[in-house]
Amino acid sequence: MKTEKKTNRQKAKATTATHNGKPTSEHPQKGISAKALRWWACLLPIVAVVVVGAALLMYESLLLFRVQELNLFLYTPLFLKQQMVVSGGLLTYLGTYFTQYFYHPWIGVSLLCGWWLLLMWLTKRAFAIPNKWAALLLIPAVALLISDMDLGYWLFYLKARGHYFVGTIGACLTVAMVWAYRSVPGKWFLRTLFIVLSVAILYPLFGFYALLGGALIGIITWRLKDYKLLNKAIDSVVTILSVGGLPLLYYRFWFYQTNIVNIYWTGIPLFRLDKDYYNYYIPYYILAASLVLFAIALKERGKRREE
């Protein structure tokens, strides 16, 4: 009788000490469920953008209306041709196109917030940011918001047209380049070819932001799993040659109206009068630094088929 009780007691302990046939120590309780994290990652950017958009409409409607008065956009081929005489011309064209919607501030703010949401969505996909770190997605958008709203009297001095949308659209392109590179198969040097073609095609259209995308690709290539070391080295060298050399070629044979000092920065406004005012570049430093850190911290989930 005592032996049976002892056996039953041991079975009960064994049952409570296991979960689905494995020790309970291997199944620690989760603080936040995966479903809750997904909701967090989805709702946080939306709530943040809605709050910022409402604040812009409440406090900056007159400023936004003034912005569209200072930015001319024409629906003519000649206007597009005039923008394309420098690299980043298409970016300026798109920026001035969307800026005109600030005539009705609620429309312009809605479009700007939509671009910010697209930027955060692309950033999450391109850099595989986990749901629990979704708050980091706000950093690039906040930097761009500051670059727009902290201009002061530079609003009247800047020669860069479409400024309020240019940075956001350019950042979306930069992140999209990274995502596209990761999506390209790693065989037959397709990724290497992608680097050359993407920088060569997009630099005349988007200027600095295409070069930033190429530089991020040079970092990302070292974070890819199941990608040969030789391929990583080749892609890095090709990235350096493309980002460093292609703007010089375009300057020599095409964009002769651009000062050689500025060929790598077209698309970035110049805060220069009697001297350079570097404080106004801080949002762009934050934007670039955040994307570089995202690239360095990239961790791919699962194995990618490269061969």
Radius of gyration: 25 Å
- Total helices: the number is 13
Order of helices and strands: HEEHHHHHHHHHHHH
The count of β-strands is 2
Residue-averaged pLDDT, rounded?
A: 85
User: What about the largest sheet?
Assistant: 2 strands, antiparallel
The poorly predicted ranges are 1-7, 11-30, 303-307
Structure description:
- The protein is mainly α.
- The chain has 13 helices and 2 strands, in the order H-E-E-H-H-H-H-H-H-H-H-H-H-H-H.
- The chain has a two-stranded antiparallel ribbon.
- The longest helix is centred in the first third of the chain and has 26 residues.
- The chain starts with a helix and ends in an 11-residue tail after the last helix.
- The N terminus and C terminus are likely disordered.
Summarize the structure.
With 307 residues, the protein is an all-alpha fold.
Topology (elements, then pairings):
Layout (H helix, E strand, L loop, with lengths): L1 H15 L1 E2 L2 E2 L10 H26 L1 H9 L7 H7 L5 H11 L5 H22 L11 H12 L4 H4 L5 H21 L6 H17 L1 H13 L8 H25 L28 H15 L11
Antiparallel strand pairs: 1-2
Helix pairs in contact: 2-6, 4-5, 5-9, 6-9, 7-9, 7-13, 9-10, 9-11, 10-11, 10-12, 11-12, 11-13
